[in-house]
User: Which sequence fits this backbone?
């Protein structure tokens, strides 16, 4: 009887020891998951972009532009690709840097012009924006542009109510957090839209590469932008978007195919030239 009781106690202790061992292993393996997040880490978890490629933006949404005029998103989709930027006009640092970088990158793109080839549409996700702030931010940005006629139409700055803002940001997967009145945490991203309002590509970061911006515009326009569709198709063949690096890079396989085809063409020309020379030599010897 006493031996049976001792055996049961040993068995229970063994089971308890195994459980304690497993809990210890779990705590060692996943310590971060059990630690409380700091307020900054909690905010970073809530902001970002859930990419929704090929999603349709609701073009019926109503906004107010920098001149106080009631507009709809569809007013700016007239056959060209659109760069959508989501910002707030009291942003002290990030948004102005994004605008400045975008202006700088546009100035370095050869063959494309904001005047005719594409549009930029900036929408504030702050429902408490005022007409004065919206107009001031637009004028501040337009002063950086060079050679752009009718800047207010080619790059409108819009404000709207909470419902319209949520529908727009939700349609493109843009997540932001309100920190205080007129202050938000948000990602830095450009959203390239096709002429019919579908999401074609996301470009991230403050500093935009002119090459990436040009390729994204070509992709959004399906090559139908600028002066040469053939050159646009060639560029898209040579470069592809790297989802891991979040930028465009050379498509090595396609470059090898082009190189191989060029080598074969040169070999064909060389063989044909040698054949023609040999044929002429044979005809000369036959004539003599």
Assistant:
């Amino acid at each position: 009887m006493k031996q049976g009781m001792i055996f049961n106690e040993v068995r229970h202790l063994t089971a308890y020891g195994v459980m304690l061992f497993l809990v210890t292993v779990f705590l060692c393996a996943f310590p971060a998951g059990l630690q409380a997040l700091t307020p900054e880490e909690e905010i970073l978890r809530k902001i970002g972009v859930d990419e929704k490629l090929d999603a349709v933006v609701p073009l019926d949404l109503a906004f107010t532009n920098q001149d106080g005029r009631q507009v709809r998103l569809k007013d700016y989709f007239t056959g060209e690709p659109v760069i959508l930027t989501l910002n707030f006009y009291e942003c002290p640092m990030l948004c102005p840097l994004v605008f400045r970088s975008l202006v700088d990158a546009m100035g370095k793109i050869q063959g494309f012009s904001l005047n005719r080839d594409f549009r930029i549409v900036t929408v504030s996700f702050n429902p408490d924006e005022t007409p004065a702030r919206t107009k001031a931010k637009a004028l501040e940005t337009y002063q950086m542009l060079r050679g752009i006629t009718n800047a207010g139409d080619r790059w409108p700055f819009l404000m709207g109510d909470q419902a319209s803002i949520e529908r727009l940001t939700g349609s493109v997967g843009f997540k932001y957090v309100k920190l205080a009145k007129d202050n938000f945490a948000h990602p830095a991203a450009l959203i390239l839209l096709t002429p019919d309002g579908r999401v074609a590509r996301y470009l991230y970061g403050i500093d935009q590469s002119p090459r990436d911006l040009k390729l994204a515009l070509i992709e959004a326009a399906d090559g139908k932008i600028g002066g040469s569709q053939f050159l646009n198709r060639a560029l898209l063949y040579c470069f592809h978007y790297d989802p891991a690096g979040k930028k465009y890079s050379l498509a090595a396989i396609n470059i090898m195919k082009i190189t191989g085809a060029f080598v074969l063409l040169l070999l064909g020309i060389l063989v044909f030239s040698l054949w023609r020379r040999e044929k002429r030599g044979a005809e000369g010897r036959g004539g003599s």
